[in-house]
Amino acid sequence: DVQLQASGGGLVQAGGSLRLSCEASGFTLKNGAITWFRQAPGKEREGVICIDPSGAYAYYIDSVKGRFTVPRDNAENTLYLQMNSLVPEDTAVYYCAKVMIWWTRMDYWGKGTLVTVSS
Questions:
Q1: Half-sphere exposure of 115 (CA within 13 A, CB side)
Q2: pLDDT of residue 43 exceeding 90
Q3: 40-59 burial, b if ≥16 CB within 10 A, otherwise e?
Q4: Is the dihedral of CA 89, 92, 97, 101 positive or negative?
Q5: DSSP strand pairing (113-118 vs 10-13)
Q6: How far apart are the C-alpha atoms of 27 and 25, rounded to whole Å?
Q7: Region of 30 on the Ramachandran plot (φ > 0 left; ψ -120 to 50 alpha; else beta)
Q8: What pLDDT score was predicted for residue 55?
C-alpha cells in the first residue's frame, strides 16, 4: 500500500526555520511527483510546492519562493520541506501528497503536521 507521512511540525518564532519530512512507503519517490500542501486556520487548503520525480524541477507559489526548498534523501525515500525565514502567515497544517496529475490531482495523501509561527 502507498502511504505518506508528514512530520516535523512544531512551534517556531518568526524568522526561524523548520524542516518537515514526508516519508513514503509503497512507492519510490524517484518514480512519483510530490506536492506539499498547507491549510491555514479558517482557510482553504493550498498547494505550496510541487516537485517532479527527479527533483530537478519544482513549482513554488510566490509566497514561499526564496524561503522554502525541497531537499530529498533517496536512500531513505524521504522528501523534506525546508522552511526558512518563516512568517506567521506560514502557520498551517502541512501535508504531502503523491501527484496523479501535476498540481491538480493527487492520489495519495499523508496525515498533516502542524506548523505554528509566532510573531
A1: 31
A2: yes
A3: eeeeeeebbbbbeeebeebe
A4: negative
A5: parallel
A6: 5
A7: alpha
A8: 86
Phi, psi of 78 (to 5 degrees): -130, 135
Coil, helix or strand at residue 63 = helix
Q: Which of 36, 34, 69 is nearest to 54 (CA)?
A: 34
> What mean pLDDT comes out for the span 47-64?
94
Phi then psi for residue 89, to 5 deg, are -70, -10
* 82: its cell numbers: 525546508
Q: Which three cell numbers stand for residue 74?
A: 533517496
Kindly tell me if the per-residue pLDDT of 11 is higher than 90.
Answer: yes
Give residue for cell 511540525. 9
From the list 99, 77, 71, the residue with the least C-alpha distance to 24 is 77
